[in-house]
C-alpha cells in the first residue's frame, strides 16, 4: 500500500472540483497488510507492516493462534512465498494450523479478496493520504466499521456446479 492519490468519487461542489496531486513520491516506502477473515463471525483481523517476509507472516499467525487457542485453524492462502516458507509450515504443523493453498491465478476463490475490494473502495478510493499514518488510520476506521456490522459468512454456493463432482462419460474412439 502506498500513500498515493487514488482516484474515485467524492462529494464536492461542482464549481470547485477536487484536485489530486499529479505525482507522488515514496519517501517513506510502502507498507504491507496481512489480513484474515473469520468466516464464523465475518470479522477482519489485520496487521500493517513495513516488510512482507516469512517472519511477518509467522508473527501474524501467532497472533491468530493466540486469538483462537485450542481450535484447529484452516487458513486459505495464496501462493506467496512467505506463506510457503519452511519455518512457517513447520510452525503451523506443530500448532494445529492447516494452510490451504489456492491454485495459481485462483485468488478470486478466497472470500477475503471481496473484503479487500470493499476496503479499497470505501477506505482508499478518492483519497490523497500524505503519510502512512493517515492511510493506516483510514484503514483502521473502515475495519472498525466493518467489524461492528459483520455477520457470519454462510453462502458458500453449495448448489454450484463447480463444487459438485460429475462423472463425464469416456469419449468413444
TrEMBL record:
Organism field: Pseudonocardia bannensis
Tc1-like transposase DDE domain segment(s): 7-121
Alphabetical list of InterPro entries matching this protein: RNaseH-like_sf (IPR012337), RNaseH_sf (IPR036397), Tc1-like_DDE_dom (IPR038717)
UniProt-recorded Gene Ontology molecular function terms: nucleic acid binding
Any one Pfam family match given in the protein's UniProt record, by short name: DDE_3
Protein's UniProt name: Tc1-like transposase DDE domain-containing protein
Amino acid at each position: 500500500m502506498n500513500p498515493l492519490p487514488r482516484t474515485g468519487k467524492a462529494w464536492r461542489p461542482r464549481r470547485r472540483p477536487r484536485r489530486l496531486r499529479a505525482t507522488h513520491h515514496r519517501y517513506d516506502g510502502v507498507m504491507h497488510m496481512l489480513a484474515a477473515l473469520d468466516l464464523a463471525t465475518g470479522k477482519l483481523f489485520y496487521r500493517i507492516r513495513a516488510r512482507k517476509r516469512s517472519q511477518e507472516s509467522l508473527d501474524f499467525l501467532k497472533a491468530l493462534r493466540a486469538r483462537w487457542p485450542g481450535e484447529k485453524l484452516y487458513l486459505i492462502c495464496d501462493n506467496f512465498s512467505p506463506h510457503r516458507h519452511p519455518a512457517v509450515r513447520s510452525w503451523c504443523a506443530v500448532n494445529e494450523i492447516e494452510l490451504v493453498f489456492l491454485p495459481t491465478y485462483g485468488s478470486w476463490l478466497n472470500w477475503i479478496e471481496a473484503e479487500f475490494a470493499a476496503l479499497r473502495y470505501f477506505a482508499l478510493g478518492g483519497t490523497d493520504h500524505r503519510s502512512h499514518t493517515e492511510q493506516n488510520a483510514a484503514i483502521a476506521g473502515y475495519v472498525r466499521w466493518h467489524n461492528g456490522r459483520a455477520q457470519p459468512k454462510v453462502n458458500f454456493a453449495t448448489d454450484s456446479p463447480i463444487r459438485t463432482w460429475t462423472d463425464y462419460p469416456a469419449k468413444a474412439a
